[in-house]
Amino acid sequence: MSSPDIDPPRLYSAREPIFPKAVSGPFRRLKWIIMGLTLAIYYITPWLRWDRGPAMPDQAVLVDLANRRFFFFWIEIWPHEFYFVAGLLVMAGLGLFLFTSALGRVWCGYACPQTVWTDLYVHVERWIEGDRNAQIRLWRSKWDARKVRLRLTKWAIWLVIAVLTGGAWVFYFTDAPTLLGNLLIGQAHPVAYMTIAVMTATTFIFGGFMREQICIYACPWPRIQGAMMDEDTLTVAYREWRGEPRGKILKGEATKSDIPPGEKGDCIDCFACVNVCPMGIDIRDGQQLECITCALCIDACDEIMDRIGKPRGLIDYMALKDETAERIGNEGSSLWRHVPRPRTLLYFGLWSLIGVGLVVALFMRSPFDLNVTPVRNPLFVTLSDGAIRNTYELRLRNKQGGEMPFTLSVADGKGLVLSIEGAESDTVVVPADSTATLRVYLTAPAGSPMAQTGTSDIELLVSDQAGIESSIDTVFHGRD
Ligand code: SF4
Ligand code: SF4
Predict the structure, then answer these.
(1) Domain 368-477, CATH 2.60.40.10 — does that match?
(2) Residue 85 alpha carbon to ligand 2 centre in Å
(3) Is the backbone of residue 220 left (phi > 0), alpha (psi -120 to 50) or beta?
């Protein structure tokens, strides 16, 4: 039985809004650069053009779902080449493992779309409502004309960003200028409008209202990445041995970074690191799942250290191994010496291996493909003059931007006569970027060795105008 004086544990607490304070410094500048680059890549890419020939789409990056193709500048991936996409996805995963094991949550802190768009929304908020203190005052104030005006302005700009974000997404799946025209006159496919609506809503809600909650509760990555990190992983941490005991430092009072060491630590308990944190946490409490290692607390604390004349780095990027060494008075090693280690080298090796394999496969692939299926019902027919004829279904895929004549033949002739249904010669023209299905006949004259042999292995050859040749093995059935 519980005592009436003891409060039951709280299983739920409402979200405390976070008002991150503006900060400047090298990590903030790095975040600006990455934000600018990633947003520019996202919004501009669908508008880049790439000439592939008259019959081909001229959008540089296009996921052409209707024709089941993926275009990336000069590369065109067909459905049967999906292993390229699979390889790139595996590389992206391994790249993430590599960066996480070497540099902790750099993806979360700098490049994750949730981080980038939230950062953008936070800046709009700051621009409209002012910095942290002004935002807190506005949040606590009653709803009046000013508050309504500021909120509506902020939400309107957030909404414009959200619509642009959703709009940019659909441009990756069809010709962007055509789709934009159709969207504006209400003639686009309903799926395009629905996709934009969903992307707009998620951007607006995730970036505007759910921010850190997405990272903490919805994203599985913070839980998974723990398996990739160890005590050599570089992460943002507080030098507790140097900062504690924290407290205001009176004029002339010695601290631990002075020589000789004094009583107090270097942390003056100013909360600058907490106030700038977009996740609303205190890094001085140790490693936390919520920390996305954006390093803004480093910028904030370094600024304070400069002001009070103490060495920078009270909060710093460091390996936990070094933190432990420093705590007992030893020197930590150079940051970059933690990066090459068996785990990171293994990830890098696998990543490079797949990358090299994909590049080699890309440069070795033929500009056309073929596959052949012998018609088995019947295996062969005997013509009126006693010749034996086999029939084949040949699929010839022209992967080039212009129509191309292809010549078919049998390797070493083998005494077989080749003809193509509907064609007057052994050459067919296949339109640009398409597949032709051909019915091909091979005939062995009566009495020839091939006509009298049961089953013979043969090789069908296809060559294009440039002399590039491709072959495929099949069989010829003669009379037993
Ligand atoms: S910014 Fe630095 S000095 Fe201020 S509270 Fe944080 S750790 Fe302490
Ligand atoms: S504790 Fe520091 S590094 Fe971690 S999320 Fe907050 S500001 Fe970023």
Answers:
(1) yes
(2) 34
(3) alpha
